[in-house]
Design a protein that fits this description.
With 463 residues, the chain is an alpha+beta fold. Helices cover 53% and strands 16% of the residues. Helix 2 crosses helix 10, helix 4 packs across helix 8 and helix 11 packs across helix 16.
């Protein structure tokens, strides 16, 4: 026995060691404290009366069981997959360059849109020829792109980053391929405008060692086969439950929940719930979820809303880095497995190559009501971004103004563009309030969670 809580709950060494193996952790004082705290909080969660404010312990245990058994079924499918050396050889013969990193060009670009009238087009061609002459004479290409380019990349000096030829339109790739570091391309007329490229650097192709290539091919083949088996089984399970693949009476979330339930039932029919590894996962994941729920309950019981004075003080002492608002535009393509989602990468390539502008793409392709406004979603603070799509929240913080990103999340597949941002001194108190409250809540949550841990540890009697 390692410790006792409340003269009732015993923290046993064999259980602690089982939990360490499940987590893949070493025996260390901080891990023992985490395990003991989890044991105490999960016990408290079971003893607490069911409240209307959240799921009961029984419901949590039920949900954990569903997901553990679903995972066990996936592991069962993967365990039956064997990739032969012949399969690897066949794949490498068909794709000898698999996993080779091709030659990549570090590029910056300058783009001018061609107007509709011939006189304007002639003037634009002359302007681009003049810009190329200035670049060839040694004028800073980055500055030229910032001052003259009509592409969104002007906000970052025309930077495209490292680009593979295969990802460029053929006419552009043909012009870029012979370039060497320092070269300025010929003027390229493509799509809706004129392009000029500067090659900053070139990364030579990289070929991994043969044994690494074979290992990666084996992993890729095994994953592909496992995905195929899982998809086939899922279709059978849904069909057996009378759920048609085209049935839209269920939301994607409801369909996924039902599929998890069917997978768990199938796992039970295969007696996977009786496997020692499944039993261990069930025990410790249940403890983990119950402890998290009890932690959240205690934090909410002790939480206090910030006063107006506290918010004003936080605003007065802001540094600017944590207070942000983002003006975002988006193009929606539907759920990740919908036909429209496959179009997202095609549209992304058109946007990156300036073949189409963002507003036009939004009006043409977006399934969201914002399409009528060219995809403009308005100003959003960090909290609103996170509630909209957590993946977008993380991406927006890294985007430069004018940059675009492809995101696949709970709201489906989107291409987002950062139109503008406001930070720190640019925000009024009213603008900053949602973010100030979010930051206060975040800090308070961290403090209260530590307070819960400290109180539990104080009540433990270690041997």
């Amino acid at each position: 026995m390692l410790a006792v809580w409340n003269d009732d709950l015993q923290i046993k060494r064999e259980e602690y060691e089982s939990w360490l193996r499940w987590r893949g952790l070493p025996d260390a004082p901080e891990n023992l404290l985490e395990f003991a705290t989890g044991q105490v909080l999960s016990r408290a969660a079971k003893q607490r009366e069911v409240s209307a404010g959240g799921p009961s312990a029984a419901l949590i245990e039920q949900q954990v069981r569903l997901y553990v058994l679903s995972d066990a079924l996936a592991q069962h499918l993967r365990a039956g997959i064997e990739i032969s050396e012949a399969q690897i050889d066949q794949t490498l013969q068909a794709k000898p360059d698999a996993f080779k990193v091709p030659k990549r060009y570090k590029l910056r670009n300058l783009f001018l849109a061609l107007p509709d009238d011939e006189q304007g087009r002639t003037a634009t061609r002359e302007r681009m020829a003049s810009l190329r002459q200035r670049a060839m004479a040694g004028e800073d290409f980055t500055a030229l792109a910032e001052q003259e380019s009509e592409s969104d990349t002007r906000f970052k000096g025309g930077r495209l980053g490292l680009v593979k030829l295969a990802n460029l339109p053929p006419v552009v790739a043909s012009a870029v391929e012979p370039m060497q570091p320092g070269d300025i391309s010929q003027v390229i007329e493509f799509g809706q405008g004129l392009f000029l490229f500067w090659c900053e650097d070139i990364e030579d192709p990289v070929t991994p060692p043969p044994e690494d290539v074979r290992r990666m091919v084996r992993q890729a083949l095994a994953k592909f086969e496992a995905d195929q088996m899982q998809a086939s089984l899922d279709a059978q399970l849904l069909a057996s439950a009378g759920i048609d693949q085209e049935d839209d009476s269920l939301t994607p979330r409801q369909r996924q929940q039902r599929l998890v339930e069917l997978r768990a039932q199938h796992a039970e029919s295969l007696s996977l719930d009786r496997l020692p590894a499944t039993q261990v996962a069930l025990r410790w994941r249940t403890m983990q979820q119950l402890a998290m729920r009890e932690m959240d309950r205690r934090v909410e019981e002790w939480r206090k809303e910030p006063t107006e004075a506290e918010l004003r003080e936080a605003f007065a002492h802001r540094t600017g880095g944590g207070l942000r608002q983002f003006r975002v535009a988006g193009i929606a393509f539907g759920e990740a497995n919908s036909p429209g989602a496959a179009r997202a990468r095609e549209v992304l390539e058109l946007l990156q190559n300036n073949t189409i502008d963002f507003e036009q793409a939004a009006r043409t392709y977006s399934t969201h009501k914002s399409a009528a406004e060219g995809g403009d979603l308005g100003w959003l603070d960090s909290t609103q971004l996170a509630s909209r799509d957590w993946s977008l929240s993380r991406a927006a913080r890294k985007l430069a103004k004018g940059e675009i990103t492809l995101v696949s999340g709970d709201r489906g597949v989107w291409i987002y563009k950062l139109l503008d941002r406001r930070e720190g001194q640019d925000l009024s108190l009213q603008d900053a309030l949602p973010e100030l409250k979010r930051q206060h809540r975040q800090r308070q949550t961290k403090q209260l969670k530590q307070r819960v841990r400290d109180e539990v540890i104080r009540t433990l009697k270690f041997s």
